[in-house]
Amino acid sequence: MFYRPEDGHGLPHNPFNAIVAPRPIGWISTRGADGSENLAPYSFFNAVAYTPPQVIFSSTGAKPDRDGTKDSVSNIRETGVFCCNVVSDALKGAMNESSGPWDRGTDEFRHTDLEKAPCETIDCSRVAAAPANLECRMTQIVQLEGQSNFLVIGTVTGIHIREDALVDGRFDVLSFNPVSRLGYRDFAKVTDLFSMPRPGE
């Protein structure tokens, strides 16, 4: 089949994010200027540069009390910082629960019984049980085409790695099985690895 997005796909469910998959999940923790805490997963997330290390995530949709966006972007507008927490298989339930349409005053750490830990380079909490956390300073918030679509770009200023996720000096994803987002309501976890040398190596 072929379709133009503006004309619709004619399927029971939109296939777009099932095609662009799997996608890493950016479990974004933020703190508002008033000290309130927020934790929410975003599947439009990725690393985009090595030096300096940089990440992006996109927020789509809006809450009525957040000036055309969601809690995460609103908090980042106020404070300029956020933390990306890696989602392990053991944390998938808490991650999913934190995605709910909770009101502005809800602290998702408390709501999901997750332990907070302080960040070192920014004023924000992180998920203590996550296998890794990326502390970030926002460099840009870009309004994308379409209503309430925002791209957040951040430079990584600090990295936490849980000791048991380091095996022989490498960050070992099989030690915690990261969870990725597929289309519809589907997810996947990494359970198998294979390596391929680059041409010329």
UniProtKB/TrEMBL annotation:
Top-level taxonomic group: Bacteria
SUPFAM superfamilies hit by this protein: FMN-binding split barrel
Gene Ontology molecular function: FMN binding; oxidoreductase activity, acting on the CH-NH group of donors, NAD or NADP as acceptor
Residue ranges of domain Flavin reductase like in the record: 18-173
PANTHER family: BLR2425 PROTEIN, FLAVIN REDUCTASE LIKE DOMAIN-CONTAINING PROTEIN
This protein's name: Flavin reductase like domain-containing protein
Organism from which the protein derives: Palleronia abyssalis
